[in-house]
Write a structure and sequence with these properties.
Elements: H1 2-23, E1 26-32, H2 48-56, E2 91-96, H3 104-115, E3 119-123, H4 130-134, E4 141-142, E5 146-149, E6 152-153, E7 155-161, E8 163-164, E9 176-177, E10 184-185, E11 191-195, E12 200-203, E13 220-227, E14 230-235, H5 251-263, E15 268-271, E16 283-289, H6 294-312, H7 315-332, H8 344-351, H9 357-366
Parallel strand pairs: 2-3, 2-15, 3-14
Antiparallel strand pairs: 1-16, 4-10, 5-12, 6-7, 7-9, 8-11, 11-13, 13-14
Helix pairs in contact: 1-6
Amino acid sequence: MIEQVRTAYRYLLVLGAGMILLLFSVMIPVLSSDSDFSIYNTGWNGCSELGKDTYSAGSFVPTIDLSASSEERVVHSSFSETTGDIRPSRSSLLIIGPDLTFTRKEGEFAHDFLSNGGSLLLADDFGTGNELLSFLNTTTRISGRTMLDLSYMKSSNFAVTTEFSEHEITRNLTMLLMNMPSIVVPSSKAVAVINSSRTSWLSLDKNGWWDPDEPQGPFPILTVERYGRGMLVVLSEPSLLINQMRDEMDNGIFVRNLFRSLTEGKENVMIDESHRDLENPVQLTNSFMSAFDPIQKIGIMIALSIVFLVFNTALPRKIIRSARQLIDRFLSEEPVGPGDGSTPIQVVMGRHPDWDRKVLERLINDIGG
């Protein structure tokens, strides 16, 4: 009885260990944030899908400052502090939805980066990026005012545009859906690649209606400008890049075209995370990730149970012994028939042992047996 209890306990331990292994296969550290436009934000308002695209391309450049980071807050270095073999002609810099201002050092870095062949995307609708643009030899600016449009989906906040110039960024585009975009005020050297419709206007009083003193479209939404040997791309609608909006209309095609245009032939892609609001920091958390699908889990549990039964119980030995006895009995049986010297009565009784032998003998005698 004691041995049976021990066996039961051992089985429960093996079963429990297997369940833990399957339910929590791997524990990995995960960087997460709920900040708008962050590549560590997997929510609707994050750019985690764009981060995956960059990582999949094999060109992602980490910017985490390990010396200043902790589990509560992950600090990112400014792009101006990038070290290593980062050649501008082989690199791209993406700045999406910045919240914090830019320094002169960052402006000088951006100028040198572009002049020496780098590609820089500034996607901003509030105008925070204008400080960076002010350090560059360009008059291109972001209005910071909200653009509304009579060509919309659901409400005038969700403007729709079909106004595209011929460019690799607009290849195969028919319609884009935006979410309260601003507009680009381009320099004389900038080329407007995407524009709003003719029914758009710049909302100055924010009352949702067009007033006679409010400028009317079309307005530039994305401009491309040659800067030295590099390319400066300014987008006044960063919401086109967030996870949720990528599935709307041709937004996904636009993101892929834009990413390809900025990164084609580049070895390094830096995505700026140092200008995020400090109230929404990037945090380091632990996440349990399961490495098996449900069918695999069931198969592993069955295999563990079989292994336990084989090595820890007498059941397999009993099964083997019973099977051996059955085989021996089958092989030891000899056929009974007229050709082996048996009498007809013996043959019949061998086949029907429950019959009455005396009745059978009398019947055979009557028919002359």
